[in-house]
Design a protein that fits this description.
The protein has an 8-stranded mixed sheet, with helices on both faces. It has one domain (3-225): 3-Layer(aba) Sandwich (Rossmann fold). It is globular and about 50 Å long. It has helices at residues 12-23, 35-45, 57-71, 91-116, 134-137, 150-169, 197-208; strands at residues 3-7, 27-32, 48-51, 76-79, 123-127, 174-178, 218-221, 224-225. The protein is 44% helix and 15% strand.
Length: 228
């Protein structure tokens, strides 16, 4: 049985990724800040719930301790939690966006490493974004060129870089970052863009189900490696 933790999984891509991995036989832990929403999502899917706020060290530590106590290991971690951060361009908002989208990856990954090392096929997937690609946002032919979300873009560039650096420093664990595709979620509602969440979740599931000989240290979308 594959033990999987997905952060920010009570809705959107995280929720659908949980659903698809459950269908593949994974034991899935839905991590969510809000207990009521998280428990509701887990009950709807037949998953398990852990309260997990990626911006809170104690919450992260407690969540991984719960999984350790129940399972003794973690096979797959999906760093999915994120915020758009399209508010004011100021210090407090920048701290909030980076704390969730980048520092949160460090908190959760560091807490998960001891459990991942107990797995026979430890895998970490970061849900990143081509909005963090210099190549994409400077290309007038790309949709990223016209999206004014500077803090989100910068934090996702950091998320991808963290993933690549983890792949280098943890050679026994597979680390990959994914651009899941523009998806119709609460986060993108204001821009009126995106495809069904089911399609984008498939890209995450592909990386979450790699075998031991799968690639590591990559940044891809459904079509292959992305320039960044």
């Amino acid at each position: 049985m594959t033990i999987t933790l997905i952060t920010g999984a009570n809705k959107g891509i995280g929720f659908e990724t949980a659903k698809q991995l459950l269908d593949l036989g994974h034991t899935v832990y839905i991590g969510a800040r809000d207990v009521e929403r998280g428990e509701k999502a887990a009950a709807e899917l037949g998953a398990r719930f852990v309260q997990l706020d990626v911006t809170d060290d104690t919450s992260v530590t407690d969540a991984l301790a719960t999984i350790d106590s129940a399972e003794g290991r973690l096979d797959v971690l999906v760093n999915n939690a994120g915020v758009l951060g399209d508010g004011p361009m100021d210090g407090p908002n920048a701290l909030r966006v980076f704390d969730t989208n980048a520092v949160g990856i460090v908190r959760v990954t560091e807490a998960a490493l001891p459990l991942l090392r107990k797995s026979s096929n430890p895998t970490v997937v970061t849900v990143s974004s081509s909005m963090g690609s210099f190549w994409a946002v400077t290309n007038p032919e790309r949709p990223e060129y016209n999206l004014p979300v500077a803090l989100y873009s910068a934090s996702k560039a950091a998320a991808t870089m963290l993933t690549i650096q983890y792949a280098k420093s943890q050679p026994g664990i597979t680390f990959n970052a994914i651009e899941p595709g523009a998806t119709a979620t609460d986060m993108t509602a204001a821009y009126g863009i995106g495809r069904p969440v089911e399609e984008s979740a498939k890209t995450v599931v592909r990386l979450a189900t790699l075998g031991p000989d799968g690639p590591t240290g990559t940044f891809t979308d459904e079509f292959g490696p992305l320039s960044w």
